[in-house]
Amino acid sequence: MSQIPLLGYTDRLSGRPGDTIEFKVSSYTDEPYHAGLVRVISADPNPIGPGLIEEEVNIPFGGTFPSRPQPFYPGSYASIETGDLFQSLGSFTIVATIWPTTPDKGIQGIVSCSESANHQGLSLCIDQQGCPSVTYLGSNQNTITVHSGEKLKTRHWYRVWTTYDAETSILAVGQQSLSLSGRQAQVAIKLDQNIFLQDIDRVLLAAVSGNSVHSHFNGKLESPMIFNRNLTEEDISELPMQIPEGLQAHWDFSKGIRSTRIEDVGTHQKHGRLINMPARAMTGSNWTGEEMCWQHAPDQYAAIHFHDDDIYDFGWETDFSFTIPDDLKSGVYAARLRCGEHEEAVPFFVCPPKGKPSARLCVLISTFTYTVYGNHARPNFEPGWLDRIRDWSAYPWNPAVHRQYGLSTYNDHTDGSGICHASHKRPLFTLRPGYITFGATEGDCSGLRHFQADSHLITWLEKNGIAYDLVTDQELHEEGVAAIRDYQAVTTGAHPEYHTPQTLDALQQYREQGGHFMYLGGNGFYWRIALHPELY
């Protein structure tokens, strides 16, 4: 899948005067790109409809900037800075409990211990044949690998481990099925060199360290541990009910489930952080099925499900920023990017000053719904849709073709599990003027949903000279009823589906206080969402 030549996104989707919006752009061309400001009136590219309508806004904005490609790295994992954890380690045991979902897909990291300077170290992995293995890369650049030779089954729980005895130079890798069979296997070899981990300063869980993090694990992982001695197979089989002496690190995923932090309950307290939002509070190897709520039995939900295509925040650097001026009219705006033959539009929504409405009517913009549906790859997509896109000069990119940019919660991960997190901190093709949701629609129907469909309301208000302000569900969530109480009427758009308890409470309070609320949508107020306190 090729990279798209010109793309961008913002750090936030809306703001009020005085707020600053940051624009992050990736351009694969050699020439500079130009960024100008437009007001978006109609986002429907249908030639028999209003067509795309944008008005240039002549105020200081953007400018000309050098092109630069900005990479992004899908795949979730945990990262721990270990400091001196390994300095006194001679013999060791590394053990974890896993539930692999794609054991045959190739090398996948489980616990990877490395030096950040040169990535030398030791990794407990799933190998190309779907078997547990351990690989050691030393300072002499010689690679040693030991394979268990026992293939893992999909969606079965296993305990996997590697041990090293510094006195005998024996390195082993093993596994135990936690199903009824309880099958156990271990392979050990005597090395003609010693293993030195004293300079290890970083541990990755569910991936392997390198020039970029790679070999991401698909599946659930729980209770990784590191010991400062060579445990016996009997010791390992009794984990975690009995934890023998020598425990150095134990990342217990039942702790801090609401956060992106993982806690080390071992001796050294080497806590870590989660990258790209894997799914927490997953049923673990000890789940009995008697409790369906993780809050009631967190120890039974102490697994994290990692995916090789998880993506939350692309982390691109900011190219330019824009502080919303006091006199900018409330409305839909976009940074219109141009670079040679390539164009891109990055929308954002301008609300009026807090507590100072400029109109009697408020249009509630459903950015939560836009985000949840962001980059939805339609299951009925077929290449013929691209003909209509070309004929109408519509937005050219479709998530069904470019899945690497992250999909929607209406899609699945590569391992077949459902996507459960949504983010606007990445390019969202579906949130673009001219994007067509249903490309094979019969007749002349535009095939629009969400942002593009909502622009029909904006077009109608503009055509009829009806003054309006925009407020998004983000402001409604953060400010409550104060965000809308001064309006005579509040109207939704076409599809206000996703809400938080705070937005629902605010709308109910608005009605109870005598406000006029117009529901112009379908499939509205159907699902409740939560905003992650660390990331939104």
CA-based shape: elongated
Number of strands: 31
The count of helical stretches stands at 6
Radius of gyration: 27 Å
Content of β-strand: 25-35%
Give a short account of the largest sheet.
Answer: 16 strands, antiparallel
**Total number of distinct structural domains:** 2
Topology, please?
Blueprint: E1 6-10, E2 14-15, E3 20-27, E4 33-43, E5 52-56, E6 63-65, E7 77-81, E8 92-100, E9 108-114, E10 121-126, E11 132-137, E12 143-147, E13 158-165, E14 170-177, E15 184-190, E16 202-205, E17 219-227, H1 233-237, E18 247-252, E19 261-264, E20 272-275, E21 279-282, E22 303-306, E23 320-323, E24 331-339, E25 342-350, E26 361-365, H2 367-372, H3 385-391, H4 450-463, E27 469-472, H5 473-479, E28 489-491, E29 498-499, H6 501-512, E30 516-518, E31 527-528
Parallel strand pairs: 2-25, 26-27, 26-28, 28-30, 29-31
Antiparallel strand pairs: 1-3, 3-23, 4-5, 4-6, 4-24, 7-16, 7-20, 8-13, 8-17, 9-10, 9-16, 10-11, 11-12, 13-14, 14-15, 17-18, 17-22, 18-19, 19-20, 21-22, 24-25
Helix pairs in contact: 5-6
Structure, described:
- This protein is mostly beta strands.
- The chain has two domains: 6-72 and 315-528, no CATH class; 77-306, Jelly Rolls (Sandwich), CATH 2.60.120.200.
- 10% of the residues lie in helices and 32% in strands.
- The chain has a 16-stranded antiparallel beta sheet that branches.
- Helix 5 packs across helix 6 (501-512).
- The longest helix has 14 residues, at 450-463.
